[in-house]
Amino acid sequence: MALKLYLEAINKEIAEHKYGNHPQELYDPLEYIMSLGGKRLRPALTLMSANLWLYNWQKAVKPALAVEVFHNFTLMHDDIMDQAPIRRGQATVHEKWDTNTAILSGDVMLVAAYELLAEVEDANFKHVIKRFNRTAAEVCEGQQLDMMFASKENVSKEEYIEMIRLKTSVLLGFALELGAIVAGADQESVDLLYSIGVNLGLGFQVKDDILDVYGEQAKVGKQIGGDIIENKKTWLMIDALEKAEEFGVVKELNTWLQKETFDNTEKVTAVKAIFDTIGVKQDAEQAMHGYFNLAFDSLKKLNVSEDKKQVIRSFAEDLLNREH
Amino acid sequence: MALKLYLEAINKEIAEHKYGNHPQELYDPLEYIMSLGGKRLRPALTLMSANLWLYNWQKAVKPALAVEVFHNFTLMHDDIMDQAPIRRGQATVHEKWDTNTAILSGDVMLVAAYELLAEVEDANFKHVIKRFNRTAAEVCEGQQLDMMFASKENVSKEEYIEMIRLKTSVLLGFALELGAIVAGADQESVDLLYSIGVNLGLGFQVKDDILDVYGEQAKVGKQIGGDIIENKKTWLMIDALEKAEEFGVVKELNTWLQKETFDNTEKVTAVKAIFDTIGVKQDAEQAMHGYFNLAFDSLKKLNVSEDKKQVIRSFAEDLLNREH
């Protein structure tokens, strides 16, 4: 089955699903944020996974939408916490309405995700809810760690990976796992799909960090070096800080990190030069390939026919090779 | 079984339950708000209800705690929205920490309620989750209506009752319903218990509105007339506004509602005098008794022995006769 068909089914469901209307003011922000688009990676993963076993993968569409609704709930609340004015080129909910609306509509959106999961048939329902509960709590844990890291002096690579595992990767893991559970797959397969999702998530995030520094502006669609300008503790920056002494660039790197006024382009160019001296890009690519390889290894172990695996393999390769 | 034993079991579970610790900073606000006390009405209702059929009512303790955790989640988020500095005599979470913490710890608290519900046995689990989903969404809907009413010109009694039904009463209904489902009761009994809870909730709220104006300060423990000072659209004020013309006090009432500076005691005394002219207290008491009577009627219809019903009847009578 082609990815395109999964995405069509998801977008149709997003366009048609009614969350509630009593009062409409509570539900408008849900429909708004869901209408802003996005890659719909997570629900696509659920359908891909379900279709490994299920001919009738359509029965996974509502559970798949639950994952996308949960993801957008986290965006709605994260945007308040980050005071982000823009999401996907449009005003964020707390900007378009206000913070109270973004809190309360976010809350009901989390409940809406559980309502969509109630479409899972009885035999698999408790398993799904328990796994979703754990995942949802972990995503909150990851967001908490992310906020704490912003003011933490030293963040190790292990800590960073643990943070992105929780904040981002476990939901990709759950998305794939969910499809397998809904399809009635055996526990070994369910576990392998979870592992594929988590490792794709980690690889995806390291790739994101690489693109922010080494991507082409025209393709990435946002200012290159944004993370450097903000002193963000990305995988690359943590690597640079860990190796700066070995390469004799501690003082230079710290000078740029501590400068309060600077020309953006000048800072990006200078820090990038330090990264190049250390070989940060190669380190990051090696780490990224490591995670993608773990995902491909799990995919290999999965006991389904090669042609069925192909849609997941291509999807993973697209994530690996993407330039934006 | 005495109420005291239920409350002991709940307080023990609250003291011992571990929500998570990774990172502790995310979970500290949960433990804090749960430690602030409160009447624990809702989990007590769940245990009372379960004990109508179940000798071993202890198996309902974790589900009962889920209701209390959910209730405290709503308080944590409502306090942000209301900019409330104090909750149960202590600093609110967004004051003691900050707004971001109160948002995120609240989110994980909602998930924690679902985690506790996962203790319900498989046969009843989906029923419980579906009813909880609906209830949780309705509580958000009630909070949204409450916020909208603050700036709405005319609020009718029907609208007000619908708002408090959603914001407060359905959770009391669910608390009783949950105990019955966990105990494996028949659907007719489950529905009767829900109806008891909802009507107790409505009666409870009208009683609250009465006590705010007509309670004894020493017993109520807060300033009498707070709702009048803030022009809050309570059951009493709505009744007064509806009948003001009939009693020729429209101008007088509006003068007090529109005054921007006033002496608090003077306003409370004057508005109370208008209420007395109209007979607002009698109207409110009649409405309150109406709801309590509906609850007692449903209790009468319930097919369990009289001595088992007694704990719920006494509990309801205590709510009806309370002076604070």
TrEMBL record, chains A, B:
Class in the EC hierarchy, top level: transferase
MF terms in GO: transferase activity
InterPro entries: Isoprenoid_synthase_dom_sf, Polyprenyl_synt, Polyprenyl_synt_CS
Domain of life according to the entry: Bacteria
Entry-linked Pfam families: polyprenyl_synt
Cofactor: Mg(2+)
Keyword Metal-binding carried by entry: yes
Record keywords: Magnesium, Metal-binding, Transferase
The enzyme's E.C. designation: 2.5.1.-
Transmembrane residue ranges: none
Record carries keyword Transferase: yes
Family in the record: Belongs to the FPP/GGPP synthase family.
PANTHER family: GERANYLGERANYL PYROPHOSPHATE SYNTHASE, SHORT CHAIN ISOPRENYL DIPHOSPHATE SYNTHASE
Protein's name according to its UniProt entry: Polyprenyl synthetase family protein
Organism, scientific name: Lacihabitans lacunae
